[in-house]
Every structure is written in structure tokens, then in C-alpha cells.
Amino acid sequence: MKAMLLAAGLLATGLVSHAQPTKPRTSGNPIFPGWYADPDAAIFNKQYWLYPTYSAPYEQQVFLDAFSSPDLVHWTKHPRVLDTASVKWAHRAMWAPAIVAKGGKYYLFFGANDYHPEKPNEPPGGIGVAVADNPAGPFKDYLGKPLVGTIENGAQPIDQFVFQDKDGQYYLVYGGWQHCNIAKLKPDFTGFLPMADGKVFKEITPKGYVEGPIMFRRNGKYYFMWSEGGWTGPDYSVAYAVGDSPFGPFERVGKILAQDPKVGTGAGHHAVINVPGTDKWYIAYHRHPLGDKNGNHRVVCLEEMHFDAKGMIQPVILTTEGVTAQPLKR
Ligand code: FUB
């Protein structure tokens, strides 16, 4: 009793305080609730944006949600930014969005229908483009048909990523079924321009490639990253290569993201965020919760991504804490 009174007295005098040392607030992983996968990332108007696949049976994948955040910790959901109801040729399996802002418009590239032309009576499918005035949509079909609706160099037309080179040129990098193509987009994104050799689709598949390509530049080098393994299982992972141009050649360096049996499994299909004006990098990716064998049960997570002095990407550590707040300054 005496001790309690003494403590109360000290508190009253302000000589001791109730305050516990505060831990920095983190995003936690997953960073938002719900089954989502294949995030693409962008920064618009001082907000981070993530555009994931809604991870569910194919027939239920008829829309895309988006998420925005001022600091990577607090996320706001923007439901159904794109819906198959507004894309007459898309009816299922809306996958792996890729977002680009250009000329005051927002273009959302998406895969739809899980196109298999070898099946009898297969309807059109492949990679489409939708457009909106706002990153939160509503996005509407831009072309009325797929932008890529054929199998080129063995690549299923899914898992698109839009890469802008230093000269401003936009490229579509895409492909499933273990093949990856790059194609030069027309400035209005209505189609493609032939390359110097007259071809439209150039295959840049590195060893081990399965799907989920992305590309970015750092210190004059082109980093090409992709997913390996099967997305429903525990071994899904991310590897990378470094080249001197968007066309490679890309030689596999190694894996940088994979399961941690103590944290999560099937870590893959990612996006990379560089905080403008800094050399601070993040990786947004999906993984399966520990012990969950349902392939569609995928959640979106965030970690820091680091380079060594030679520019090699360091293995990413999977966490349950996620990342600390990183407000955008400009
Ligand atoms: O989410 C559907 C598919 O799963 C994606 O297109 C693949 O990359 C895999 O993540």
C-alpha cells in the first residue's frame, strides 16, 4: 500500500511518467485485409497506390479494387475501380493490373479470361487497357478488345507490366507460361510500334522465368524481376537479372524473395516502390498465410528492399511487422 501511494505521489509530481517507450507504428503484414495478390505500385498526388488482383476462384475475379496510402502504413480501399461489367470481352480471371499515368489520364492494363486458344470455342481474352480520369476510377474499357489477344513467342497474354524508359518510351513487358515478351507501346497505348528489326514482340525470357515480370532502372542499370514456381504452392518466389537495356540480355542472378516457413509461404508476384528523390526501396508482394493450403488465400505484404554496394538486390526478409511510416514529401 505504501509503495502504491509513493508511486502515485511520484506520478503526481511528474518525477516519473506512465508513458511506455513507444514502438514505431508499422504497416503490419498483410497491409490490408482480404485475399489479394499480384500488386502493382505507383505514386500519384503524394499518395502511394497499390492495384492487386482480387484472389478468388476465376469466375469470381470480375473486378479490381485499389488501395491508397499517404505513408505505407494507413491504407484506404477503393472498391471496384474496374469491373468486367464495363469491359464487354472480359468475363472472368481479371488479373495482375498495371497502372500508368499519362497526359492527365490513368491507364489500367489488366489480364482477363485466362486465355487458352487451344480450347474449342475459346472467346477472346488476354491483356486489355482501361482508362479513367482518377486513379480510383471508375476505369472504362479503352479499346473494346484486348491489346494483346494472341500467343506470341509462347507467352500467355497475362501478367503485364508497363515500363517507361529514360527516353520516355513505354514498353509492355508481359507473359505467362514461362515466356516473357517486351513490346514497344504506341504513345496513345492503342497498340504497338515495330522494333528496329521489324518485330513487335521480342522475347526476353531469362532462365527460371515463370510469370509476373517487372522492370525498373537504378544507377543506369535495368533490373528485370519475375516470379518462379507455382503460385498456388509454397515455393513461389522472385528472382532477378540486371542488364544494360530493356531488351537485356538478362542473365539470372538469383532469388531475392521466397517463403519463410516461420512467417509465410509462396511469396511472389511483386511490385517495387522507390521513394522519389531517395534510394529507399520497398517491395510489395503476395504470400500465403502460414499453414493455409488454399491457393487463392493470398495476402499483400510490404518489406524494405536493399541493394549492396555493387547494386545487387539483397534477399528480402519476410516480416509480420511490415514497414514503418514513409510519408511522401513531394
Ligand atoms: O493471380 C492470378 C495469377 O496468379 C497471376 O496472373 C499470376 O502471376 C499468379 O500470381
Automatic annotation (TrEMBL):
Q: What is the lineage of its organism?
A: Bacteria, Pseudomonadati, Bacteroidota, Cytophagia, Cytophagales
Would I find Hydrolase among this entry's keywords?
A: yes
Record's InterPro entries?
Answer: Glyco_hydro_43 (IPR006710), Glyco_hydro_beta-prop_sf (IPR023296), Glycosyl_Hydrlase_43_Enz (IPR052176)
**Would you identify the family this protein belongs to, as annotated?**
Belongs to the glycosyl hydrolase 43 family.
Sites annotated Important for catalytic activity, responsible for pKa modulation of the active site Glu and correct orientation of both the proton donor and substrate: 159
Highest taxon in the source lineage: Bacteria
**For this UniProt entry, which residues form the secretion signal?**
1-19
Q: Native species of this protein?
A: Hymenobacter setariae
Q: Name one GO biological process term.
A: xylan catabolic process
Q: What PANTHER family does the annotation carry?
A: ENDO-1,4-BETA-XYLANASE, PUTATIVE (AFU_ORTHOLOGUE AFUA_2G04480)-RELATED
A Pfam family that the UniProt record links to this protein: Glyco_hydro_43
State the UniProt keywords alphabetically.
Answer: Carbohydrate metabolism, Glycosidase, Hydrolase, Polysaccharide degradation, Signal, Xylan degradation
Protein known as = Family 43 glycosylhydrolase
Recorded GO terms, molecular function?
hydrolase activity, hydrolyzing O-glycosyl compounds
